[in-house]
Design goal:
One of its GO terms (molecular function) is metal ion binding. This is Putative rhodanese-like protein. By secondary structure, the chain is of the alpha/beta class. Helices cover about 60% and strands about 10% of the residues. The chain contains eight helices and five strands, in the order βαβαβαβαβαααα.
Length: about 200
């Protein structure tokens, strides 16, 4: 299927055939680093995270616009968006995997959702997250008391930075658990992308 902008969308079988036919091409994975690391990838993929616009723009500027690029994401939509952007800045030979890595794995007979963690490990991770959030809550309450008592602003700011760093670590852990236990359907993938965009902002 060819889109109005010239981007070509291939089914998994067509995608595989294209890889077999071509001698020189680059496969681009436009997912996040977390997805790339925890969900697997197509062999020899170049990771360029489309959800980090500045990074994506910078990295594709290093690529030859006349080369052939095979692009994929998790479920298809992000791959089309990335290819459409590349098309708008002068890339010509762009092919997107329809249905993304999920469809690819299903085509290869490896579409079973397997969690990286056992049920016991998931429960333990959630308990640890609650403990860490309680600790952060204590830090925030401490900041409130410092403000009430009129403490030195620099000390309050240091506490605020500590809270920010702690929350960043918690967010990372939650996303890891989410990637490995909660994402099965395309709807859940879309939810993840929405959360990622909010965190990046």
């Amino acid at each position: 299927m060819t889109l109005d902008n010239g981007v070509i969308v291939l089914t998994p079988s067509e995608f595989e055939k294209k890889m077999q036919e071509l001698d020189d091409f680059t496969i681009i994975d436009v997912r996040t680093e977390l997805e790339h690391n925890y969900e697997g990838m197509i062999e020899n993929s170049l990771l360029i995270d489309f959800l980090r616009p500045r990074v994506f723009k910078r990295e594709i500027e290093k690529l030859d616009k006349n080369n052939i690029y095979l692009i994929y994401c998790s479920v298809g939509k992000l791959g089309i968006d990335a290819a459409s952007y590349m098309k708008s800045v002068g890339f010509e030979n762009l092919y997107v995997l329809e249905g993304g890595l999920k469809a690819w794995n299903k085509y290869l007979g490896d579409d079973t959702k397997v969690s990286k963690f056992s049920r016991e490990e998931i429960i333990e991770k959630r308990k640890k997250l609650i403990i860490r959030l309680n600790r952060i809550e204590g830090q925030i309450n401490g900041m409130k008391k410092m403000l009430i008592k009129g403490k030195y602003c620099g000390d309050i700011l240091n506490q605020a930075l500590a809270v920010k760093a702690a929350m960043a670590s918690v967010n990372q852990e939650i996303m890891e658990v989410f990637l490995n236990t909660c994402m099965i359907s395309p709807k859940e993938k879309e939810d993840f992308f929405r959360y990622m965009k909010k965190l990046i902002k």
